[in-house]
């Protein structure tokens, strides 16, 4: 979520008033804003997407709730010591959190372990351990529409009789200390991005948020005028018409068997009725196609922790496979491929398969990704129900990612096309009229230069590094992962360095290369990549021959509040994942909206950015998905590229020989070995095209006017990538709710006038 103060002021239309009031008190608003901690309650893009979606849902007047876990410790703080990443705990609540309100009156029990008793009246889950879920509510204000939605985050609490109700008359002190075991559930965020780690505590977290949330949703449903209560039980027929639940990846997949358990075991609905309601309630968003990221929980772990849920999953699977067998008799391989249970070695539950079977809609997050989901990863399921599969291209909120972080550019745009674009970003196309306007071109360039100077001053103040603000700011910020190919950027840096040293007198367009991002603490290769970038930077930055022509900065502790500073100052945005690996990307959209040009592959939303702006207005290079597939078919041979490209050979040899690590010559042997022998992401195959494309970038940068005209064309084409557009599509195609442009009256005005006109709102 990042910081809340400035976003709240902007959405409430109070920023100028607050700035002025604080100034009158002899204080500086920007200084105050810098004191607030980031709420870092997720990993990379998936967590930030949820935050943008909350902003858009409130701005569109949807009755929507964001549910999650109130981690005591969020994503770790990254320190760089001697070039290595070191993790520190993110104690973000140390000074309290003024934006949250604890709601103990809505506390709910969540059960674990135990066993299942079967009787004529049905199944009962008994002898469980109970953990309480305490909700904390954070307001989510819409933009200038007097709407405030809620983000409800659950915190784990031990019940007061925890470990004391049993006959263990034993150790009272120890029993109280053991309360920590229950409360550890919401202690810390697992810091993996695009990687599955099958730990028991993580499964507990996933079930904890799901069980608490579903109880909350059902309580609200029963209390509403829609849940018509007769003396026997609530009628749940209208449930899917009143409630839509979107599963953000498979992490909350246990919601499917949990809702079935509530309907069948507690509310005593017949299975087929319960299943119909469940399917119509859930929809699933897939966020990655990397096999190592797909959740596959061991059956024996689920059996221990959630025995009743395992039985329900088996029943779902049996009915699912019976259905397929009736359509494809004797096709045992299809049954094996489509089963929710993977046999062989340890039996595992494929959570993506559970989500597909238990949802009425499945979507990817960019056109190209949705095609891969449909035609490759889940092709058997798409063959069965093609109408279930959709695309919803990701977006970003223009409130945080333009108004808040780049007020200079936002104001310049407003002068030309008015202020309405903030709620309707498609209006940015009106900027096409000004592409040839010399004054506008100069003003856009001036705003960018001011942002660069401001960021340079920030780096100098915080990190004691001096950079040249007139150099090209070439920025690569995102989680560190092999598929995102920070290594390819690193090879390009070394190549530029070698060219400068070879011919110091030759014209060279000065660059400051800024790379930033966190590596999962257990991801050895990602940590080696960080060390390599810092080692290369150390050599490059201290070579007198290079001078100020080339600087390499590793940006420590990349997070939302730092993104808000670096993105508006960026000239060149690096989006260079191997085609077919980045589901969408959203940083790419933030850079485009803030006047950077993109160098990138035809991957994720880059494809649609090129479609919107015209491919000639992005620096597109490298293999397409088809080329990658073809290369896999014939076998990728890294050695071939190394042998044929002298500059690549030189760069790799320098890494290998210890040129960048003279005290430890074989420090990077694992990295080099990976590049030659098991590089799934084919860095060498795209190296030549990347370096050539970078030469075109430098050439254009020399012509400031031509560069800025291309920038304006990009900004004018960025309208599609508002999360408002994304959410309108979810609302229309999946949730079946109408966004409302109605600005509800403020609390100081009488409401009765509009009270009766409120349509039946559905909660998403």
Automatic annotation (TrEMBL):
<keyword id="KW-0021">Allosteric enzyme</keyword>
<keyword id="KW-0597">Phosphoprotein</keyword>
<dbReference type="GO" id="GO:0008184">
    <property type="term" value="F:glycogen phosphorylase activity"/>
</dbReference>
<feature type="modified residue" description="N6-(pyridoxal phosphate)lysine">
    <location>
        <position position="590"/>
    </location>
</feature>
<feature type="region of interest" description="Disordered">
    <location>
        <begin position="739"/>
        <end position="764"/>
    </location>
</feature>
<keyword id="KW-0321">Glycogen metabolism</keyword>
<dbReference type="Pfam" id="PF00343">
    <property type="entry name" value="Phosphorylase"/>
</dbReference>
<feature type="compositionally biased region" description="Basic and acidic residues">
    <location>
        <begin position="749"/>
        <end position="758"/>
    </location>
</feature>
<comment type="function">
    <text>Allosteric enzyme that catalyzes the rate-limiting step in glycogen catabolism, the phosphorolytic cleavage of glycogen to produce glucose-1-phosphate, and plays a central role in maintaining cellular and organismal glucose homeostasis.</text>
</comment>
<comment type="similarity">
    <text>Belongs to the glycogen phosphorylase family.</text>
</comment>
<dbReference type="InterPro" id="IPR011833">
    <property type="entry name" value="Glycg_phsphrylas"/>
</dbReference>
<keyword id="KW-0808">Transferase</keyword>
<keyword id="KW-0663">Pyridoxal phosphate</keyword>
<dbReference type="InterPro" id="IPR035090">
    <property type="entry name" value="Pyridoxal_P_attach_site"/>
</dbReference>
<dbReference type="InterPro" id="IPR000811">
    <property type="entry name" value="Glyco_trans_35"/>
</dbReference>
<keyword id="KW-0328">Glycosyltransferase</keyword>
<dbReference type="GO" id="GO:0005737">
    <property type="term" value="C:cytoplasm"/>
</dbReference>
<dbReference type="GO" id="GO:0005980">
    <property type="term" value="P:glycogen catabolic process"/>
</dbReference>
<dbReference type="GO" id="GO:0030170">
    <property type="term" value="F:pyridoxal phosphate binding"/>
</dbReference>
<keyword id="KW-0119">Carbohydrate metabolism</keyword>
<comment type="subunit">
    <text>Homodimer; enzymatically active. Interacts with PPP1R3B; recruits the phosphatase PP1 which dephosphorylates and inactivates PYGL/glycogen phosphorylase.</text>
</comment>
<protein>
    <recommendedName>
        <fullName>Alpha-1,4 glucan phosphorylase</fullName>
        <ecNumber>2.4.1.1</ecNumber>
    </recommendedName>
</protein>
């Amino acid at each position: 979520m990042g910081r809340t103060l400035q976003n709240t002021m902007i959405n409430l239309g109070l920023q100028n008033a607050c700035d002025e009031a604080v100034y009158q008190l002899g204080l500086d608003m920007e200084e105050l804003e810098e004191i607030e901690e980031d709420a870092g309650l997720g990993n990379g893009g998936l967590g930030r997407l949820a935050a943008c979606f909350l902003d858009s849902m409130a701005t569109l007047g949807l009755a929507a709730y964001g549910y999650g876990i109130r981690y005591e410790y969020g994503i770790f703080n990254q320190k760089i010591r001697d070039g290595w990443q070191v993790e520190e705990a993110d104690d973000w609540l140390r000074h309290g959190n003024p934006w949250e309100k604890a709601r103990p009156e809505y506390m709910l029990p969540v059960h674990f372990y135990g066993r299942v008793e079967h009787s004529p009246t049905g199944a009962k889950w008994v002898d469980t351990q109970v953990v309480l879920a305490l909700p904390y509510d954070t307001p989510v204000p819409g933009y200038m529409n007097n709407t405030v939605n809620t983000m409800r985050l659950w915190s784990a609490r031990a019940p007061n009789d925890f470990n004391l109700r049993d006959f263990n008359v034993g150790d009272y002190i120890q029993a109280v200390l053991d309360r920590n075991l229950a409360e550890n559930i919401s202690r810390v965020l697992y810091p993996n991005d695009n990687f599955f780690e099958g730990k028991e505590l993580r499964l507990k977290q996933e079930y904890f948020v799901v069980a608490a949330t579903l109880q909350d949703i059902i309580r609200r449903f029963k209390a509403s005028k829609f849940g018509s209560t007769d003396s026997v039980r609530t009628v749940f027929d209208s449930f899917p018409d009143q409630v839509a639940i979107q599963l953000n990846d498979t992490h909350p997949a246990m919601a499917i068997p949990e809702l079935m358990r509530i309907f069948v075991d507690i509310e005593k609905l017949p299975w087929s009725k319960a299943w119909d309601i469940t399917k119509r309630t859930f929809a699933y968003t897939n966020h990655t196609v990397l096999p190592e990221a797909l959740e596959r929980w061991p059956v024996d772990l689920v059996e221990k922790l959630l025995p009743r849920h395992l039985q329900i999953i088996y029943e779902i699977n049996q009915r699912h496979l019976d259905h397929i067998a009736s359509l494809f008799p004797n096709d045992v391989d299809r049954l094996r491929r489509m089963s929710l249970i993977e046999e062989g070695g340890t039996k595992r539950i494929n959570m993506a398969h559970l989500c597909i079977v238990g949802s009425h809609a499945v979507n990817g997050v960019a056109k190209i990704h949705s095609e891969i989901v449909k035609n490759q990863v889940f092709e058997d399921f798409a063959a069965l129900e093609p109408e279930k599969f959709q695309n919803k291209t990701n977006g970003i909120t223009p409130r945080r990612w333009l108004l808040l972080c780049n007020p200079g550019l936002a104001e310049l745009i407003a002068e030309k096309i008015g202020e309405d674009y903030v709620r309707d970003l498609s209006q940015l196309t009106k900027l096409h009229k000004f592409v040839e306007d010399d004054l506008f071109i100069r003003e856009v360039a001036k705003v960018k230069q001011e942002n660069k100077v401001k960021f340079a001053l920030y780096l100098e103040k915080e990190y004691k590094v001096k950079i040249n603000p007139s150099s090209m700011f070439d920025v690569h910020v995102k989680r560190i992962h092999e598929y995102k190919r920070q290594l390819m950027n690193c090879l390009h840096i070394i190549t530029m360095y070698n060219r400068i040293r070879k011919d110091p007198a030759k014209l060279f367009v000065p660059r400051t290369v800024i790379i930033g991002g966190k590596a999962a603490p257990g991801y050895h290769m990602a940590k080696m990549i960080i060390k390599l970038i810092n080692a290369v930077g150390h050599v490059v930055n201290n070579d007198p021959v290079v001078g100020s022509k080339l600087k390499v900065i590793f940006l420590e502790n990349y997070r939302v509040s730092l993104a808000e500073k670096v993105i508006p100052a960026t000239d060149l945005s690096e989006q260079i994942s191997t085609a077919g690996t980045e589901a969408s990307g959203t940083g790419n959209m933030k850079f485009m909206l803030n006047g950077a040009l993109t160098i990138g592959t035809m991957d994720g939303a880059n494809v649609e950015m090129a479609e919107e702006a015209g491919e000639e207005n992005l620096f597109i290079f490298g293999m397409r998905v088809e080329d990658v597939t073809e290369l896999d078919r014939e076998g990728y041979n890294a050695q071939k590229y190394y042998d044929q490209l002298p500059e690549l050979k030189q760069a790799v040899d320098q890494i290998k020989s210890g040129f960048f690590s003279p005290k430890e010559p074989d420090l990077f042997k694992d990295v080099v070995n990976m590049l030659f022998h098991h590089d799934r992401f084919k860095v060498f195959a795209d190296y030549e095209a990347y370096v050539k494309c970078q030469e075109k970038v430098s050439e254009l940068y020399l012509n400031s006017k031509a560069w800025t005209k291309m920038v304006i064309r990009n900004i004018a084409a960025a309208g599609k990538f508002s999360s408002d557009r994304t959410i309108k599509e979810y609302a229309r195609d999946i949730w079946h709710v109408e966004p409302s442009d109605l600005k509800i009256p403020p609390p100081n005005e009488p409401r009765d006038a509009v009270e009766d006109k409120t349509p039946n709102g559905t909660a998403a």
